[in-house]
Specification:
With 231 residues, the chain is of the alpha+beta class. The protein is 58% helix and 6% strand.
């Protein structure tokens, strides 16, 4: 269920009443017209919600001291401070609630604001995409296409990582089983050319496996590019 919120109301007529699933509000509170609607959506959203409220509703685990593991890099230890705004002391990203949603979902600032309004059922009247200028619609289409392309690349990269981890673990398990099998066998069998090649490759395979299991994104991408060049 979406988080339901209200802000400090300006007067009694503007008071919002909350139930478990709906927001009830007076017409005077909701009324916005023309360009003011688009111009005000950013400030309106930020009046209702903090970056922390939105982030927690989208699944971020925040400690009592306001620290969390940054979702924008491979953060092993909490390095992001988040409250009204957010800032990561490790990778340097930061901004307000709209910027957080924009970065999290790969949206433009305007699309992020719309998503917040819809997901949190905020009583803010906004113009939809069909009312935007043609150049704005074209820009949104380009951004959506690029976002889908990046998602596709990321999915392929994740599949490659998972397949490589499984393959390396199988190879290392085979080397271990071969060592057990050859224990006590004659030297000419133990020191066969095939087994020698496997033993020679074992440290490198362990190194690759460490990168894929515990390395950061940059290290994994570098390993991926080396694999493409050698193939």
């Amino acid at each position: 269920m979406p988080l339901l919120v209200t802000r400090a109301f300006r007067n009694k007529k503007d008071k919002a009443f909350l139930s478990n699933t709906h927001i009830y509000y007076s017409k005077g509170f909701l009324r916005r017209k023309g360009e003011n609607c688009i111009l005000n959506i950013f400030s309106e959203v930020k009046e209702y919600l903090t970056a922390r409220q939105v982030a927690e509703n989208y699944g971020l685990q925040v400690r009592r001291n306001g620290l969390a593991c940054c979702p924008f890099h491979d953060d092993k230890h909490p390095s992001m401070k988040i409250d009204k705004n957010y800032h990561c002391f490790a990778c340097g990203v930061g901004g307000d609630v709209i910027d957080y949603v924009s970065r999290m979902f790969g949206l433009s600032q305007y699309e992020a604001a719309l998503k917040i309004v819809e997901d949190f059922r905020l009583p803010i009247e906004v113009k939809r995409n069909k009312e935007l200028r043609e150049q704005d619609r074209e820009r949104i289409r380009r951004e959506r296409t690029e976002r889908e392309r990046l998602i596709h690349i990321r999915e392929r990269f994740d599949r490659w990582c998972n397949h490589s981890i499984e393959s390396l673990r199988d190879s290392l398990s085979l080397i271990e089983q071969m060592g057990i099998f050859l224990n006590g066998k004659p030297p000419d069998i133990i020191f066969s050319e095939d087994y020698a090649r496997m033993l020679h490759a074992e440290p490198l395979m362990n190194y690759w496996l460490d990168i894929l299991c515990m390395g950061n994104t940059e290290d994994k991408q570098e390993l991926f590019m080396k694999g493409r060049k050698s193939s």
